[in-house]
UniProtKB/TrEMBL annotation, chains A, B:
GO terms for molecular function: DNA-binding transcription factor activity; transcription cis-regulatory region binding. InterPro entries: HTH_LacI (IPR000843), LacI/GalR-like_sensor (IPR046335), Lambda_DNA-bd_dom_sf (IPR010982), Peripla_BP_I (IPR028082). Keywords: DNA-binding, Transcription, Transcription regulation. SMART domains: HTH_LACI. This is Transcriptional regulator, LacI family. Residues 13-67 form the HTH lacI-type domain.
Length: 335, 335
DNA sequence: CCCCGTCCCGTGAACGTTCACGGGAACGTT
DNA sequence: AACGTTCCCGTGAACGTTCACGGGACGGGG
């Protein structure tokens, strides 16, 4: 049952093959498959049968080429398993779906080196990119070649880019004020342990602490994981045993601290108050539930998608002052 | 500064425009952009400048049409925020990336009605689909029109499909044996509350319990969330106060039960042992860490991607008996 | 008998890119 | 001077689909 002439190469089944098999023209096949009018019932059925018989599937490229109605955006994140990025990704997906867009997701596995390769390969697959990058702007620029790019949680210098700013200054101030109101004066912080630059969150903490006449120097670094948070808390308490409250770089670390506190026999919040950052759903699963300087991750993803959409269609992009997510204190049982 | 003739339509900038602007031919532009040889340095630079000037970006459709070397798969899940699917998705992404594939992710927001629409729209965008669906097979078939489809955690009847089976029988047996060895005889279960069919996990539990002469009737339904787990535990303990250990439908519910146990003042595992199902990373964050009948989610995603790849290339697909993930007991502090 | 409308269906063109091939210029070799 | 090589660059074709248009068959009204 050799079909056609030539070697039985693994050639793709095209619309022509279906047309020939059904004894009609391409256009009729197209009509049958796309449910258009101007086709007789019996013909339509015959074409559909032929298509199924041959295992025909239209080429998305050919189709996309002629009717340019599908937009696809790329979403680049360092680690989908990190709950923060999970939430951002889920929100971005939700917003994209509402617009009928497709989202190609790339997980760079926490390796900044992968980012550029990803961007390279992404370039020919998507119309715009939303993502969390850690590499330099000029590199981003080079590998992105005039494609709209929206950065998450990071400032941008080049005019080409947009970025969603995370402003936690006020939220952290609230957190410290909250702790002070509860009678705490010895407040520590678990910062991230990347010593490249002092983290913004640390700066916010320092400012807030000073505002209450509190020594902002009780800080320890912690690896960005629950285990890291536990180890960090041990180190912090060893260096500053007087501490009665701790603010952490994010919720993951806070959860680790919570767990470690219990292991150390310090009850929360009586012996040790804990406040995290990000406001992940994860925090609500803890007992006591985690207090957190909460980010509206849904708004974060939403803004990013909205902006990349404007950049795409040429509509006036949102001004930087609107591209901002404000963190607010969400007090719970742990403080 | 009106360019070209005609209305200044929002026409796409094509390779021709760049070629004209740089005073060369299409092919030379293509060479410059793709970093090929056979082009002079100065010419290349001139083309690159022109491209940047015009904001040119190659059409992925035209490119994909001619060099058919990119494969894209669709990943359909009910809820990315559900940690189980997060882990599966992350694994699938990882495996796809290793093969250089792109992954379009669709979150159906727990609405089965969305599944078909998604499949419909997906059809012209991806080469194959991996996903967790809850709609009927014939519907899946209709909307998928000869596209490879791999089902996760669900049996299939039609030969067209593949599915990754989850076998927890042995793991649940281990769990019950473990509890019995610890002296428990009154073991309850928090099942899911969807009353359509009795869950497989419940059947496994029943069989395992009977194997040890234990009454398998101490069961309560729980909504699939932490809060649901908490409420379920309360209901279960109210109906069967004698219970000293509980097995749950999944880890999410278990986490809720863990939290509720603490609120009720029952210490874990001394007063109440808890064993979940899935083996999510989430469980390790609890204190005590959650025991669980653990699934290798990485293998799950990996198998699915592998299989859809084989279906895609026409290689011999994996036989059903290899498409199986076995759950094993991973004991921890909560039991 | 002619005309017009409706219902189907087919043909050329276009979408934007890369591949295969050919060809001119410059340079060196015989 | 004729010829081969190397280096650049351009032209036709192809990828597989949909859009715009045209046209035949058939039926009904004048």
């Amino acid at each position: 049952m050799v079909s056609s002439s030539g070697p039985d190469s693994a050639r793709r089944v095209t619309i022509h093959d279906v047309a020939r098999s059904a004894g009609v023209s391409r256009q009729t096949v197209s009509r049958a498959l796309n449910g258009k009018d101007e086709i007789e019932r019996s013909t339509k059925q015959r074409v559909l049968d032929a298509a199924r018989e041959l295992g025909y599937r239209p080429s998305r490229f050919a189709r996309g080429l002629v009717r340019q109605d599908t937009t696809t955006i790329g979403l680049v994140i360092p680690d989908l398993r990190n709950p923060f990025f999970t939430e951002v990704a889920a929100s971005a997906l939700e917003c994209a779906r509402a617009r009928g867009w497709h989202v190609v997701v790339y997980d760079t596995a926490d390796r900044p080196a992968e980012e550029l390769g990803t961007l390279q390969v992404i370039g020919s697959q998507v119309d715009g990119v939303v993502g969390y990058f850690s590499c330099a702007e000029d590199e981003l620029d080079r590998y992105t070649r005039g494609m709209p790019l929206v950065l998450i949680g990071r400032e941008h210098r080049m005019a080409r880019f947009s970025s969603i700013r995370i402003d936690g200054q006020e939220g952290v101030r609230e957190a410290v004020a909250h702790l002070v109101a509860k009678g705490h004066t010895m407040i520590g912080m678990l910062d991230h342990d990347n010593r490249a630059e002092p983290s913004l969150r640390r700066e916010w903490f320092t400012a807030a602490a000073l505002g209450h006449g509190i020594d902002p120097g009780r800080v320890a670094g912690a690896e960005q994981s629950a285990d890291g948070g536990g180890a960090g808390l041990r180190a912090l308490l060893a260096a500053h045993p007087e501490i009665t409250a701790v603010f952490t770089f994010n919720d993951i670390v806070a959860v680790g601290a919570l767990r470690e506190a219990r292991r150390l026999g310090r009850s929360v919040p009586a012996d040790l108050a804990v406040i995290g950052f990000d406001g992940l759903q994860l925090g609500a699963l803890m007992e006591p539930p985690l207090s957190s300087v909460a980010l509206d991750t849904h708004r974060l993803g939403s803004l990013a998608v909205e902006q990349v959409g404007r950049l795409l269609t040429g509509a006036d992009p949102l001004p930087p002052e609107d591209l901002e997510v404000r963190a607010v204190l969400r007090p719970a049982g742990s403080s």
